[in-house]
Design a protein that fits this description.
single chain, about 120 residues, mainly beta, Rubrerythrin, domain 2, OB fold (Dihydrolipoamide Acetyltransferase, E2P), five-stranded mixed barrel, three-stranded antiparallel beta sheet, 8 strands
């Protein structure tokens, strides 16, 4: 994979999604073929990070000892402007329907997407 198409899971500050050259569908989790039409004409693209909150919640009980110090923290499902849905950490007070922009923050020992109200630094 080209280094310019690495995403946050590899330490790069970007969201990368995939678009099918056969049927045009987009998806967040990349695969070597399109699960909708079977085409191998798939292309990785860098997302803008803009979107709308689909759902939001607050994690009160962290899933590991390493993350307990951060609780409570927000998590959101975001409908990206490009047409896929992704999960990210979220700023306090985000509500369903809020427009957001994605930044990246260190959380524990990892880099994670962090959504905040669109227009915030």
């Amino acid at each position: 994979m080209s280094p310019d198409l690495l995403d946050w899971t590899a330490g790069a500050e970007r969201l990368v999604f995939e678009a099918c050259g056969g049927c045009g569908r987009v998806r967040y989790f990349r695969r070597p073929f399109c699960p909708a039409c079977g085409s191998q004409a798939v292309e990785a693209r860098i997302a803008s990070g803009r979107g709308t909150v689909y759902a939001a919640t607050t994690v009160v009980r962290a899933p590991s000892a390493e993350l307990r110090a951060f609780a409570p923290y927000g998590i959101a499902l975001v409908d990206a402007a490009e047409g896929f849905r992704f999960m990210a950490h979220a700023a306090d007070g985000l509500r369903i329907g809020d427009p957001v922009a994605t930044a990246f923050r260190t959380f524990g020992s990892r880099l994670v997407p962090f959504c905040q109200p669109a227009g915030d630094p």
